[in-house]
């Protein structure tokens, strides 16, 4: 790898972000030995491919999908399984394909896949943070935290996920607060501490498993508006496709009725209800984009949390751990809206919340607060980031319903006037408003391939700019 000064020369493609999305784009761009594109990744972390999901080193943090579906290369479905097995033995591969591998292994896999590409030695990794991107006549000028600049013909925003923050107005005093994605920090919470986790989605699952990893023995209360927790995967099966055309022509209410009917029919036939959602899985983007704008709004207001717990399921092992904690009385799930968290003189916390479908407020004491409220998808709530700077410059526009970044295929960003920017692209988490299903590896690898194909077709053979 070449670690060059960011100000020394320009590149053809600058990829902002070195997590899974950025690494998948770089992998595809560097896979063609005939290409001459100059590629740079801008990522301040100590390792590539270690974004929020794959930064953990805890073995209990498992993929939420079986290994057989997690190849980085769509044309080679067994690629990740062979990496895990270290051989081509069919029996070993078959066993691994239906299991849930540790996420730390997947981060290592993505890094190894990148390093295996023919043009990997030409990759520049700038271990910095991008703070601004200015549009020039035919390219962009990126400013880095060090003050250095880098000119690029095209820029790919692979900024990944940022945690949603608990509103500061609800926190009073010196609150002991950890973020669910700070895996080691959560594991280091004192074993006897009583913990309150805000949010009951996938980040909550990570936080609980981190606590268990650290030997935690105290009480855990989970508070979220609906009090709904992710459901478990069933044994793999039901790989035939859903009759998607029957849904695309329906409105939201009718779709819900149809899916419920399918789950009843599946259960009556002896199949797990999960197989219905597995059949729908490849069609998430089509289902979202075929809904009218008002129907999408209705989904976001009323159904999104119920969809999420059925669609984004967790490994059976993780579900068993949560179940055992609940049965043992150490884990309690509360449905309600957080009102305030106030630090006590003795170092503890007073947590107040309004129960769902009830009047008045309830309170309890905790020692630590963990933020597991999930991913922040509104770019206007990330003002102190690169996205905030781009918003001020008018280079980005919030996506549909104010979430993510407005874009068109193959990820071309729309500016503040709704016009496509020929040199600025986005993939992954920030396409959620447009595509909805945009976070998982099958979607990321497809977007990465489409972007790489487009960039090679439009840029290869043209000289890179100078800073």
Over all CA atoms, what is the radius of gyration? Answer: 23 Å
Structural class: alpha/beta
Number of helices: 15
Please outline the major beta sheet.
9 strands, mixed
The total of beta strands comes to 17
Helix content: 25-40%
Termini separation comes to 21 Å
Explain the overall architecture.
The chain is of the alpha/beta class and 467 residues long. It is built from 15 helices and 17 strands. A hairpin with a 4-residue loop joins strand 5 and strand 6 (149-157). The radius of gyration is 23 Å and the shape is globular.
In short, what is this structure?
This protein has 467 residues and is an alpha/beta fold. The chain has 15 helices and 17 strands.
Provide the descriptors you would attach to this structure in a database record.
alpha/beta; 19% strand; nine-stranded mixed beta sheet; 15 helices; globular; 467 residues; disordered N terminus; eight-stranded mixed beta sheet
Write the SSE topology.
Blueprint (H helix, E strand, L loop, with lengths): L10 E6 L3 H10 L9 E4 L36 H7 L4 H8 L5 H13 L8 E3 L3 E6 L4 E5 L4 E9 L13 E2 L4 E3 L3 H5 L7 E4 L3 H12 L6 E5 L20 H4 L3 H17 L5 H7 L3 H6 L3 H19 L4 H12 L3 E13 L5 E7 L6 E5 L1 E4 L14 H8 L13 E2 L3 E3 L5 E7 L5 H4 L5 H19 L8
Parallel strand pairs: 1-2, 1-6, 2-3, 6-17, 7-11, 8-14, 9-10, 9-14, 10-11
Antiparallel strand pairs: 4-5, 5-6, 11-12, 12-13, 15-16, 16-17
Helix pairs in contact: 1-4, 1-15, 2-3
